[in-house]
Amino acid sequence: MFHGACWICLQVRGLEDSDIQKKIDHEIRMRDGACKLLAACSQREQALEAAKSLLTCNARIMAYMSELQKMKESQIMQKMARRYVSYAGSVEDRLPCKAKVAISDLRIPLMWKDTEYFKNKGDLHRCAVFCLLQIGTEINDTDMVIVDRTLTDICFDNTVVFSEAGPDFELKVELYSCCTEEEFSGGNTPKKLASKLSSSLGRSSGKKVRAVLDTGGSSPVSNGGGNPLLLPVTTVPGPKYHLLAQTTLTLANVQDSFRTHDLMISGNEESSFWLPLYGSMCCRLAAQPLCMTQQMVQITGEQQNWMKIYAVLRGTNLFCYHKKEDVEAKVEPAFTIAINKDTRIRATEKGPQSISISNQYGGEEVTHTLMAESRDDTHRWMEAFWQQFYDMSQWKQCCDEIMKIETPSPRKPITMLSKQGSLYHEMASSLPASSCEGLLLQDNAVSAEIRALLSSYYNDR
C-alpha cells in the first residue's frame, strides 16, 4: 500500500528537484556570460574578475549537481523502502531548526621575508586573491583583493550570511590566488578585441563586428559551428585561479568573538600564485538559530492565581502578557519565565490541564504553574517546549544568547566599469568616429548583445 505521507514526501522531492534544476540552469547562463566576457576582455582587471566569476559559477554548478544526484538516489531508496515498511512519525523524526550562519572580519596574515618587506628588495610579486565560502549548495565569494609585499594581512570586508544552515553544517573556506604578472593573452587593439568578440558572440554577430573593425581582410574567427560555452573550462583563455589554502569551520568554531583558525596550505614557493601565508586565518563566526529569534508558540491560558495570560515562547524566554493585543502593540510583558537547558517542565495527566515550569535561582527553586484552556493546548505547549529543548541541545552555545549578525552591505561596484565604461565603449574609443557611427547604425543588435552580456554578469549575481 502506498501511504499518503510518503506520497507527499515524494511530491516535495519533485518540487525540490525542479528548484535545483532551475538553479543549475541559471548558473550555466551566468557561466556562459563569464566565458564570453573572459574571451572579450582586453584589460587584466577585467579578466581577473571574469575568471573569478567563472570559477564561482562552476563551483555552484558542481554543488547543485551533487545535491540533485543525492536527491535522485533518495527518491529511489524511498520507492524501494515503501514496499517493506510503512511511514510513521516518531520522536526520532524530530528535526532541529535552521539558523543563519555569518562569517565576517576575515583576515589572513602574511609572513614576508625581511628582505622583501623591510628592505623592499626583489621583484614586487603581486597576486589577485578571493575566498570561496560554501555551506551545502549555498556558495558565496568575497571581493577580489590585490596582494603584494606592502600588505601584512589579506583583509576581506565582506559579511557573508548563510540562511539555511543546520547544526551539522560545515563551512568550507577556500582561498584562491592568481599571479597578476602571468602572461595575459588579452589585447587592446580593435582587431584582437574583434576576434575575441566574434568567437564569443557567434558566427553571424561576429562577422558583423569584424566587417566594421577588421580592415586587414583576414578571415573571421569561427567557433566551428559549436557552442564555445560548452567547452571544458580549461579551454577558456585568460588568467587561472589556483587553490592556495583552505579550512572547514563547524558548530564548535562558532563564538561571538574574533577567533583564529588553522589553514591547510596548498602549493609551494615555486608556484606562481604562491603567497607567504602564516598558516592561520582570523574571523568572526556567528550563528542565529531560528528558535532564538522567532516565536515558537502563542497560547492563551491562566496562571495559578487565575490571572488570564497570553504566552509567547521565543528564544530562552516565555513572555507572558495580559492579552494578545499587548504582543502586537509591543507592550512590556507582565512577567517573563526563563526557558533554558536547566528548566524542568511537567504537565498534569489528570484533572485540570496545567503545566509546571521550574527554574533554580540562587539555590532556590521557583515554579510557575500555567493552566491551558484545553487538552489540545496542553499538547501544543509541551510540543513547543520539547522542540525548543531539542533545538537548544543541537545548537549548544548558540542558544546561550542571541549572537549579533549584521546585514551584509551591498557589494561594491566593480571598478573596471567606472573606469572604462563598457566593452563597447572600449572598442569605440579605439576607432575613428566614422567607424563608431557605423557600428551603432549597422549593428545595434551586437551592441545590445554586449550590453545584455555585461548586465547579466555584473547585475545578476
UniProtKB/TrEMBL annotation:
PROSITE patterns: REM_1 (PS51860). One of its GO terms (biological process) is signal transduction. Keywords: Coiled coil. Residues 3-77 form the REM-1 domain. GO terms for cellular component: actomyosin contractile ring. Pfam families: Anillin (PF08174), PH (PF00169). The keyword Coiled coil applies. InterPro entries: AHD, Cytokinesis/Rho-signaling, HR1_rho-bd, PH-like_dom_sf, PH_domain. The keyword Coiled coil applies. This is Rhotekin b. It comes from Erpetoichthys calabaricus. The lineage of its organism: Eukaryota, Metazoa, Chordata, Craniata, Vertebrata.
